[in-house]
Amino acid sequence: MIKTNKLNVGDSSENGQITIIDEDRLCYLVKSDSKGAVGLRTISKALLQEFVTFMEQHPEVPTTDIRFKISGQSDIDKYEYGYGATLVTMAKMILGQEKILRSAKRANRFHLSPLQRIFYGAPGTGKSYAIKKLTEGKNVIRTTFHPDSDYSTFVGAYKPTTKQVPVFSTYGEKAVAVKGADGQQITEDRIIYEFVDQAFLQAYTNAWKLYAQAVKEGKQPAEQYLIIEEINRGNCAQIFGDLFQLLDRDEEGFSEYPIKADKDMKKYLDSVFNNMVFLNAPALCGMNSEETAVKIRKGEILVLPSNLYIWATMNTSDQSLFPIDSAFKRRWDWEYVPIHNCNKGWRIAVNNNEYDWWNFIEKINEQIGSITNSEDKKLGYFFCKADNDGIISVEKFVSKVIFYLWSDVFKDFGFDNDIFKDEDGKVLSFNKFYTTNADRNNDVQENKVELFLNNLNVEIYKPKISTEIKKDSLNDKISYAYDYEPLNYKNDGIKIMYDGEIFDNESARNIYKKTVTKTVDKFGVENVAKCLGAVLIQNPPQITTRKYVEISNTGWYLATNVGTNEIISYILKLKDKLHLDLEIEDLRSK
């Protein structure tokens, strides 16, 4: 039974050593004051529960020995936080062995994350993904700004809507309901106007509901996030309007300067907050708690609660759309998301070659910086996403990456650099990447794409396999283990000896499928899937014989759109993890 939830934010131990500052789903943030040394410590709830359970079951064990007694009993790293004395004291508080002091006042909320935060960087750096991971499992309302966004689309406004109403007819001086032949009253759709809340009011009202409910139950309120994608693609001054004033927060996380709601918004908020009780609401702007709570509940004033987080993303390449003024910027915390290698091994498939995606990113960003003298137009790792097999098709590469470079990045700087030279020395214009066939379909000219990549000196993808090289038992050839980087080869021949059976005289890909199929038949598909990870999956999004093949009618599919270097690494991984009687010979000519 989970008992760690007995501790609330603001609780202190009677000995004064522990105060709970904040908590989330996984951890407590604790202020520890021991022998005059004060510090903040992050305590895992799962680890704390282990201390509680152990101390319940073994009350005779001295507290100084508990940490060492439970070490190694689970997958939790007992030394990740390393605060044994703090964990013991907190466990005693939960078990009633140490008195819990609860302040009559609401505990100051210590915000682990900024309340207003903008993630900015080049396109494709993973800004939205970062927010998604940070807010996983939380209450999230998401919106996107664009040039037509305004106050009403962000906050709310009266909008026409249809409503079914009964049809009446006059009979003398009376209105009489009209009924059909079946005796049922006839209705009609009528257009009426209702106040419709948008993203801001949805987040605002839900945050206050969560806050009021938590205070009523004596708990810390759950966090409500309002996520604004592409914040600088809209006119922030126009969109926020007088809400701008609410962004100034006090030490508790509440708006320091409330704003008065207009008549329509007041009516809407009063109906939404009807019967909602704000207990122990904090004093704001010099007003007493009760007065402030009543005004918020009635919708007379707007105050952002301490559990409402407003986070946004901003592409630096879009700065010119609607510049954000300095007064607005000061009210946000800014977090730069840099361009970095995410080590996913993505490749650009062109003319039967696979070019290293990250190496391309490095090379093209170097040129963007050199030619444009700007960081804004550079590409992030996720600018163009690969398929499940790690391949970026040549069609996707041209339509998304090449088009962006030619139309947005370099168009104002000319194409004089050598990277834009065609084979005849002329400019490699964008139209040369396509050819129109008789059916008027555009086909990508892969030789032109390869020419551009070669102009940039982008490397052919080489998976890291093992620096360890050993003699193979078949024909005294060389075979490879994990992080060795083999040379490029002219063909893809390999030879496998597996339990005395030889797979030879066919393509590496067919030998690869046969090897995996035999291993599945021998060890079971789930054991093989654990070894190969995403290479052997169930229900791939696009099942084609070029990309996937089903293994032994199991419903599992093997990704086959891979190069020989990867095939060798996958087979060696199977051999190593399942201890196969298998030898692999590399027959490729250099």
Explain the overall architecture.
A hairpin with a 3-residue loop joins strand 2 and strand 3 (27-34). A five-stranded parallel sheet has the order 7-12-15-6-16, sandwiched between helices. It has a three-stranded antiparallel sheet with strand order 2-3-4. 29% of the residues lie in helices and 23% in strands. It contains 16 helices and 29 strands. The protein is an alpha+beta fold.
In short:
By secondary structure, the chain is α+β, with helices and mostly antiparallel strands. α1 packs across α3.
Architecture blueprint of SSEs:
Elements: E1 12-13, E2 18-23, E3 27-34, E4 37-44, H1 45-57, H2 66-70, H3 84-95, E5 100-101, E6 116-121, H4 127-134, E7 139-144, H5 151-154, E8 156-166, E9 168-171, E10 174-177, E11 187-197, H6 199-217, E12 224-229, H7 236-240, E13 259-260, H8 263-272, H9 289-297, E14 301-302, E15 308-315, H10 326-329, E16 333-336, E17 347-350, E18 353-356, H11 357-372, E19 391-392, H12 394-409, E20 434-436, E21 442-444, H13 446-455, E22 469-471, E23 478-480, E24 494-498, E25 501-503, H14 508-523, H15 525-532, E26 536-538, E27 548-550, E28 556-559, H16 564-578, E29 582-586
Parallel strand pairs: 6-15, 6-16, 7-12, 12-15, 17-19
Antiparallel strand pairs: 1-5, 2-3, 3-4, 8-11, 9-10, 13-14, 17-18, 20-21, 22-23, 24-25, 24-29, 26-28, 27-28
Helix pairs in contact: 1-3, 14-15, 14-16
